[in-house]
Amino acid sequence: MLWEALCVGYCDKKWRLLNVSCRKTPARIDAECCGLLLLAGLKVFRGFRLRSSDQTFENHPMSASKAISPTSAEPVATVDAMSPRIERCETPAGVTQQLRGRWAAADLAVPDVWAALVQQMQLLQSGREASQFRWDLRQVVRLDHVGAQVLWTHWGRRWPADVQADDSQRRIFDSIARYGVLLPVRTESDWRARFEQVGGWLLRGAEHAIGLTRLLGQLLLDLLRLIRRPQDGPWRDVSGHLFHIGATALPITALVGFLIGVVLAYLISRQLLQFGADAFVVNILGLSLIRELGPLLAAILIAGRSGSSITAQIGVMRVTEELDAMRVLGIARGFRLVLPRALALALVMPLISIWTTAWSLLGGMLTADLSMNVSLVFFANALPDAVEASNLGLATAKSAVFGLLIALIACHYGLRVKPNTESLGQGTTASVVTSITVVILVDALFAVLFRNVGI
């Protein structure tokens, strides 16, 4: 009995600590699931303890002489008397459901006791709701959180109309009512639910499209204002964004571009050597890197690096209520937040694209020299003849469009952030994913529209 009491006390202590931890963490833990885990653990421990005591009694040298006959033994009625049960009692106030025994995890873990208790609760629920009965908990010997959770679930997770209980019992039920949650019911999805889900996606997409269109229109109006009065423009902000977006991105873009050029040249050389077409490595590398891969790679890197930064900056301003302060002071958010970032990205993206393309060509030239014996001088002399200058102009124009789109999408999601950290993380993730997707789609559109330029 001592070990059993220690285990019950330990489980009750753990349950109380679990309730306290729920206050400090956003995650909500279902009390009923935790109770079932405690029941399972106590059940295994109880079975192990009973088996160990039986083996000790059988191996004891005095067990045969001290065996007690069934007729001379005293009737053991403590187990049944302490078992949790519900009794129907007639009182002056009416019929009352009176609880007796120990409503603790160790007692509820006994299969026979649990089966009898479940049968009693099912009989009570067959007549009317459990919350409509009168309940008396004053005769309960022990009540822990597991037993209280069983009763709370039987009551339909709400207090009955008439309950007689002491203060300690009410505190246990109050903690369960506060921190316990109901598990979501799994429902089979039908065609209507899927149709509504698709409709929700379309409506959210349309909402984002309308927001981006509104943001683009406001940007055009701010540009007209800047042209009329350039002395009032946010040039200091534009300069700062040019440095943070462009200058600080040069090392990573150079490294990634160089490695892409090395990998691409190595793979191409393995194929061209089979046909003796070593000289065509200049045509393939030059056209693919200058026209497509250079601008696209630079745009993806900037979208992941600077697009997320822009969304996080504006989102933090929403969380700290700086945007509300700007509105109160009469400061235009589009002119002070969106316009400097859009101008900086539109100006710096062509430069970063050329920088990334140059480093990727350098990596391709070195790899072609090492793997195919194509010298650097031959590569540099043959590159202008293999790739027309119009491809470089098309790549530069694409890069400017990519920068403008990345800025608009990043500012759009930043302005939609709600004043909480969860929305900030979701907005930053959505901004990066949407920017990369839009960049790839627009690049495909450019490839189709200008398929006859430079080829």
The number of domains is: 2
**How far apart are the termini?**
89 Å
The biggest beta sheet reads: 5 strands, mixed
| Beta-strand content | 5-15%
The helical percent reads over 70%
Alpha plus pi helix count: 16
Low-confidence stretches: 1-40, 42-79
What is the topological layout?
Layout: H1 2-24, H2 31-59, H3 78-82, E1 85-91, E2 94-103, H4 105-108, H5 111-127, E3 134-136, E4 140-143, H6 145-154, E5 162-164, H7 167-179, H8 191-228, H9 235-245, H10 250-275, H11 281-319, H12 322-329, H13 333-372, H14 376-386, H15 389-415, H16 421-449
Parallel strand pairs: 2-3, 2-4, 3-5
Antiparallel strand pairs: 1-2
Helix pairs in contact: 1-2, 2-6, 6-7, 8-13, 9-13, 10-11, 10-13, 11-13, 11-14, 11-15, 11-16, 13-15, 15-16
Description of the molecule:
This protein is mainly α. It folds into two domains: 1-54 and 80-181, no CATH class; 204-449, no CATH class. 73% of the residues lie in helices and 6% in strands. The chain contains 16 helices and five strands. Strands 1, 2, 3, 4 and 5 form a five-stranded mixed sheet that branches. Strand 1 and strand 2 (94-103) form a beta hairpin. Helix 9 packs parallel to helix 13 and helix 15 runs antiparallel to helix 16 (421-449). It is elongated and about 105 Å long. The protein starts with a helix and ends in a 6-residue tail after the last helix.
Throw out a few tags for this protein:
mainly alpha; 5 strands; elongated; disordered N terminus
